[in-house]
Amino acid sequence: MVVQHRRPAGRAAAAVAAAALMAGAAGCGGGAKAGDRDADAARAVRQAADRLVREGSSQARTSMEMASGGTRVTVRGEGVYDYRKGLGELKVRLPQDAAGAQEHRPITELLAPGALFMKNRGAGVPADKWVRVETASLTDGNLVTGGATDPLVAAELLRGAREVTYEGESDVAGVRTRHYKGVVDLGAAARAASAGSRGAIAAAAKGFGKGPVPFDVYLDGDGLVRKLRHRFSFANAQEKKGVAVASTTLLSGFGAPASVRLPRKADIFAGEVAEGYRK
To answer: What is the CATH classification number for the domain harbouring 115?
Structure first.
């Protein structure tokens, strides 16, 4: 799958890197709003991002399932996230090739406000170099392009939650949670997002259009996200097919150390990246 991007001059190589990765595989609204089915449920959901920031950090696991026509692939990630700094580190694993080729090496992704850094990207990038992508330059705001939705951005999307309903209690990895579902208005989420997430969500609001994004979120007794699932859909202009993407984030180990060090400028690759790369 390739996500189409509009990118300014000078950002093309980085944006191509993120697109090829997939091909190789402020405040909260506290009160009731129009479209709410349950004001208390909507309030709890919209406060999820703020609750994560107060908690500080956690371990994170991600899963992104993509379906287009008869093809279905899953990209998985695992790592840690510092919600106060908006920094995360994930090891992202691409699926095997359809022909059963040897498994891809994990790609290290560093998530930062407004940026995505990738290592082990391949396509002529030296092994010791990083590829940098400005998330606001991607038409999906990197909600799906990198193969993992930034956990804090995923929670920030809930600031635009609408038609929220409480679905009862559910067990998530041995933790009792409250299950809520509804849809996200991306434009509203962008307007309510924190400064670090606003650019990416605003780009997604333009790229995905006006359609709502369905979600399911599972909050524990402290209001912390334990599981969050968004379902995105868009058109693949190259293959002229609809693409459905289900992005799931699982959070645990709150308070776990999450020391994330961003690359030095000298360690960022400045050359061309091959778009059709396959490992």
So the answer is: 2.50.20
pTM: 0.83
pLDDT bucket at 240, cuts 50 / 70 / 90: low
Residue 140 domain-assigned?
Answer: yes
Alpha-carbon gap, residue 93 to 4, rounded angstroms: 22
The whole domain housing 24 covers: 12-254
> What is d(CA 193, CA 141) in angstroms, rounded to the nearest whole number?
13
Of 188, 214, 234, 189, nearest in space to 66 by CA: 234
Q: Mutual orientation of helices 39-46 and 48-55 as an angle, nearest 10°?
A: 40
Q: Who has greater pLDDT, 263 or 21? A: 263
> Do the beta carbons of residue 38 and residue 26 sit within 8 Å?
no
In a domain, 259, yes or no: no
* pLDDT confidence bin for 127, thresholds 50/70/90: confident
Give the integer Cα–Cα distance in Å for 105 and 124: 15
- Kindly state whether residue 268 falls inside one of the protein's structural domains: no
Sign of CA dihedral 132, 214, 191, 255: negative
